[in-house]
Amino acid sequence: MTEQTKLSVLCSLFTWTQRSKSAAKKRAKFRKFLDAFCTDHNFFPAVRLLLPNLDRERGSYGLKESVLATSLIDALGISRDSPDALRLLNWRKGGAATGPTAGNFALVASEVLQRRQGTASGGLTIRELNELLDRLASAENRAEKILVLSTLIQKTNAQEMKWIIMIILKDLKLGISEKSIFHEFHPDAEDLFNVTCDLKLVCEKLRDRNQRHKRQDIEVGKAVRPQLAKRVANATEAWKKGDPLAPLLFNIVVEGLTGLMRTAISKNMFSSYQVGSQKEDVNILQYADDTLFFGAVTTDNVRVLKSILRCFEMVSGLKINYAKSHCGCIGKSEGWCRDAAQFLNYSQLDIPFSYLGIPVGTSSKSWSVWQPIIRKFEAKLAKWKQRCLSMGGRITLINSGLTALPIYLLSFFRIPKKVVHKIVSIQRNFLWGGGIEANKIPWVNWDTVCLPKNKGGLGIKDLIKFNEALLGKWGWELVNNQNQLWARILLSKYGGWNALLFGRNSGDLSHWWKDLETVFQQQDSNSINNNLRWKVGNGVKIRFWKDKWRDDDLTLQDKYPTLYQMSTQQNSPINLMGHFVEDRWDWKINWRRNFFDHQIDMVAAFMAEIDDVHIHRSSMDILTWRDDPSGSYSTKSVYNLLKDAGNIVTEDSASKIIWNLKIPPRAIAFSWRLFQNRLPTKANLRRRMSAMSCSLAPKLGVYGYLSPYLISVRSLNLIPSIHRVTTDHLLQPKLWSRIMHVSVSFMGRMWLLSANLMVTAFKFIKMELKYISSQGKCHHNVTQYGFLFVFPWVFHLPWNFIDHSEYAHAMSEIIIQNVLVDRCILDGEMLVWDTSLKPKAARDGLDSDRQLCCILWLDVAFDILYFGDTSLIHQTLKERHEILCKIVRPVKGRLEILVPNAGINSHISSGEPCWSFIAHNVDEVERFFKETIENRDEGIVLKDHSSKWEPSDRSGKWLKLKPEYIQAGSDLDVLIIGGYYGSGRRGGEVAQFLVGLAERPSPNTHPKQFISFCRVGTGLSDDELDAVVTKLKPYFRKYEYPKKRPPSFYQVTNHSKERPDVWVDSPEKSIILSITSDIRTIESEVFSAPYSLRFPRIDRVRYDKAWYECLDVQSFIELVHSSNGTTQRDTEYGSKQDSKPKRSKSSTRGEKKNLSIVPSHLIQTDVSSIKGGSLIFSNMMFCILKNLVSYYLIKLSDEVFEEMSNAREVLLAKANSPFNYMKAGS
């Protein structure tokens, strides 16, 4: 059935999912799709279309947006210079003429196709679509691809073609992750895919979605997803995360406060606050990162408390946050409290106050406590009042709206009736009218509405019962945690569990405790006590006569009242009703007198009953909840129990059928009203004393809502005569039984119908559904490359599980000869090795590949996952490294292993930085990271030696720290000179900027030339970006390359990656941005400036600066040269940076240049800031005579010196030198 499913069904699923805002509803929709249309358990044809980016059975299409645009133009047979063709080719560009679809290729293509395709679906099935996509992927030339696209256009409409294009581009933008789709398909699908990377295999192995699959280990020949490294901002953070004790460090240190307080109390220096009749001491409480001190209100206590805090600061090194600390007093004057707070350097705490959302010092019945919650509840429903929600949607929203009521507040206080009435009024008005601002007709009693669905209600929560169920847990916890401090306080203050059950008349009771007593003692809540059962342990907590600990739901007092009256141990626990004789319990019950003859049999039965009970010395008594299988108290089971306690309504089979139907919620809600006889018919409205004409009934939606059912019933021929009944007569009371019979027959039999009949029956309802519009987006994870080794063949598989067999010839022989086992999987990196100059060849940001001499492929293995016939992923990293060293024989420059103190580290010379080592403190991590920056390496990875290998895991066992994660030492003020159109959410609008640096002007003048510097777009919020674009939009001019040249005051390269979509037509109209970046700079052929930035991002918009105050290129070059090729002024790369870095400012306009009397070509190059490299140019003299721009001459001389140790001289010739060669001699 899966392959025969129409493409239109799948496209409807995509459209609904993209518009929906609720992640839960999206997941439910996918689950229903799989349940309804994949009944033959053949999931792969559909799942490969749901997750096109994970499908590797079908090859690459070789069609990205630009190529796909030209292919569609040819498939449509339109001219390349026609408006629609230009629209496709320039899909990214925005403007008034392009509309809101700009930047989204699929929407632009759909807009073009809509004028050439029909609106009706072509009937293409999932099987036919997959066959055409297979042909498209296997097409060997462009003509075959165009033929397939033409076929697709002929067999689909524009809406279907839009989703096909997104499948081809492998980006559906549904706003739901692959993790969620896997979870709805099968709970084990993601785990299986992580270790196989085979979507087809996953669908075949998990054909039964109700059966769990045993977790599969990795296999030789199957690609696996990598273990991922979590990003950290600096070395200090990385070291803390890598420490297994890091989460406990704070708790361990703060425990010192408790120790100091304990010492002060033992020496009678601090007086605790004593609670209740048993004088329970309370002095310090700690919750998360909060600490609360309690004590007698005395001056000595205040002084001691200050001493404790000061000692803690000195010993621990931590500082008290006095700005967030408060001091409050009860029973003293306001002046005394103010003086105490000032002495402690705290702010004074006003009473009443709120702590963790709980009001303290005010009555829970006060309207001010609940008013913010009511407002929040109103606001959540009010924003939907103008929406055309069906009744089914309103029911769902009311239940979800209850989350606006903080559960912890309902768990602590008994909600006042006036608050309940207010909330119920809001719910009722919203349910029956869609708004909350006016009263509506309550067609059904609210008590009925709150009944469970299987008893004729709508399942809306009864707030009073829900509140009582939450409060009931206090009694449960009070019994099971009698040794906890809070339970001891309640016992001392109020009497504990017994007082909760039977109440007490003396003493000062708080409103909170009175409310708890009311909950446990009121008639309806006796059902809570009736469902509590004791499981006998040592008998310490259980009262022998008065508690329920037998299996017959009766206390011994109720079952044997005569014996209870004769007992002298009426309130004694079980453990005092006997004693142990060796390991056997012997009952010892004391009676007031001897028994009469007619009482002997009763006593014998009584003793026989209690002799069956086993008393255990070592186990504790446990209170259990009868209505839950686990025996634990659950709010859900108690709520259901309370609802059933005072309710005589039995289960309604018709209601149960209605709520189990697989039909839309609005249809279920209509059916419920139909059975309740609460539709707004003429007769019902007359009973409500509302005069209304029959002609208004259709306007109320009665017939409009009912007609789909009538049409469906007619199409199924359940009652052939139904079409002869008119609208006015349909809703008369005389035909009530007939309509009910029709509805029951139709709904009761619909799942017995064939698939075709079922679709016919509900096609009208589906057409009427309306959903909230939402723009979704999809995120992509960047993966790193590795390689996979299988003897005697070698497969090079990157982490995006594509087989790169083209690399096999370079490395297979080396691996086969030097790996000492037949079967293994190595985790590693493939690098390019330059044997002449540097260990690793680097591109240095150049776009054109440089021809490097002596190039070799190098495989670096840093982990082993499989060995022989055994998976090693469950062993620790340390153990895996030991195995790796044993089975791999390194070959210098070809095959290396990266492990601490071995492998590639054994080749390094003295003084060279190592590749891997075991760090013992954060200073070593910072030093190693600083060396990677100076060597211009990518970054460092920190791994927990005790960690196991988990595919696709980013839990923090591996951490990565790169220079781009660190705030640059200087923020650079640059000028916007151009803009680039965005895509997706920012489609059709400028989303990135081309920024430039100024050419240093003459004194007392403004810059006249600006040099392109970099491209930047991240860092601003949507509002900030919109403000910048709005301000510059009047001055944007489209760049029509190559017809027009860039503005004369901009110096650019016209590189394809530099070329903007729009120019700012005048620098005077532009805006300065303050940008930051990775601390390293790069040389780039893309932009005109000699250096550019890695990963630039906007820090803020400098509206306070004029256009001519941007950074000049000469100042930037000086900054780079003075900091060894970086923009960092601070040398502590790995440490935490200041939140406000230093800013590089442009030179002052009045600054004068220091002119030298020595000609520039005779000045010796300043190499004081250049780090020395190798000795290959030792004792040589270089004279560079090439005619180059000045900063390229400087760079060339720097590179030469970098490889010199004893250089005599590096001379730069005049720029107009007639020589055109370079000579070097010793």
Unreliable runs, pLDDT <50, ≥5 residues?
Answer: 690-799, 837-854, 1130-1165, 1186-1193, 1204-1226
**CATH architectural grouping of the domain at 7-205:** Orthogonal Bundle
CATH superfamily descriptor of the domain at 7-205: DNA ligase, ATP-dependent, N-terminal domain
The major sheet is characterized as: 9 strands, mixed
Broad shape:
globular
Termini gap = 83 Å
CATH topology of the domain at 7-205: DNA ligase i, domain 1
By CATH reckoning, the class of the domain at 7-205 would read Mainly Alpha
Percent range for helical residues? 25-40%
Alpha-carbon Rg, integer: 39 Å
Count of DSSP-assigned helices: 43
Instruction: Bin the strand percentage.
Output: 5-15%
Overall pLDDT score: 75
Query: Could you give the count of β-strands?
Result: 36
**Quaternary organisation:** single chain
Q: What structural class is derived from the secondary structure elements?
A: alpha+beta
InterPro entries: DNA_ligase_ATP-dep_C, DNA_ligase_ATP-dep_cent, DNA_ligase_ATP-dep_CS, DNA_ligase_ATP-dep_N, DNA_ligase_N_sf, LIG4, NA-bd_OB-fold, RT_dom
Protein name: DNA ligase 4 isoform C
Pfam families: DNA_ligase_A_C, DNA_ligase_A_M, DNA_ligase_A_N, RVT_1, zf-RVT
GO molecular function: ATP binding; DNA binding; DNA ligase (ATP) activity
